[in-house]
Amino acid sequence: MSSSKNIVIIPGDGIGTEITAAALQVAQAAAAQSGSSFTYETKQAGGAAIDEYGIPLPAETIEACRKADGVLLGAVGGPQWDHVAPELRAEKAILGLRKELGLYANLRPIKVFPALAGQSPLKAEIVSAVNILIVRELNGGIYYGARQEASVVNGVEQACDSEMYSRPEVERIVRLACRAAIGRKGRVTSVDKANVLATSRLWRKVAAEIAQDFSEVELSHMYVDNCAMQLVLNPGNFDVIVTSNLFGDILSDEAAVLSGSIGLLPSASLGDGTGLYEPIHGSAPDIAGQGLANPLGTILSAAMLFRYSLSNTQAAIMIEQAVEQVLNDGYRTADIFQPGFTKVSTEEMGRQVIARLR
Q1: Which of helix, strand or coil describes residue 298?
Q2: Which residue out of 193, 277, 331, 335 is catalytically annotated?
Q3: 225 in a labelled binding site
Q4: Any idea which architecture 121-259 has in CATH?
Q5: Fold classified for 1-103+263-358
Q6: Is 143 a catalytic residue?
């Protein structure tokens, strides 16, 4: 990675400021130790942008993100912005960034660290082998389909949301999932509801065709309800899961619980433009400013930024190994703390990760 690389930091709301600060310090240290560097600038989005600009996603933030090599986002939203007009909600910043940057794939690695296997809601022996990559289609489906808000028709109130997928949308996400599987166990599970939904029948057909181009990848199909069950019964059987926007949203949140804390999990949103990296948790305004937030999901998101956008796999591996070592050494933020371990603040957890970079 050359010094010409530039990233945008969007702290957002709630604990976003704390976790992005810790992740930035870790990223800078990892870059230096890998013989590289980057510049960064801070921009606003979400509730903080509403307060300052009157809108959740200012044009200057969009422009900076388009020009950057990567974007690291904290979290957006909070109760103080729950009652604004729907088009001004803080969460619109995320949807807006996905659209403006052409991001069509959300990658969520679900890994259970051995040191935390006992904190999973499932038995340790069930989750010990969990290492799943969920690839969620991000820019299509029911979230972006035609909708009719609630209205009274013939005396009955009703509403409607439509799901639509095109062949190109399915092709590109399945290709990405197959490419990702090549560096893993080589197995892709395509999740749909083809026994009921027309869009799922198209999805299954196209997925099978695309997989033929990847001889080193084994593709299987699974209905979404069965997948939800298998994530609880046999999560270690999955390698890469690829699915639609709605199903991916639900399944990735279910799978996130396997790790023992949602604060541990990163994500990457990739596509035609600048990659966006963020932890999967929310802004947690109830603990903001108290040093209680777990920064590891954001720190691991920074590792994904190095891997996918800054072409610095060395720094990514250094960060991931340092996080695992910190947990092995018994350091815990409040969300994963148990008696007998060392409780640390958000900032201190970042420092402990930096101390283990090598």
Answers
A1: helix
A2: 193
A3: yes
A4: 3-Layer(aba) Sandwich (3.40)
A5: Isopropylmalate Dehydrogenase (3.40.718)
A6: yes
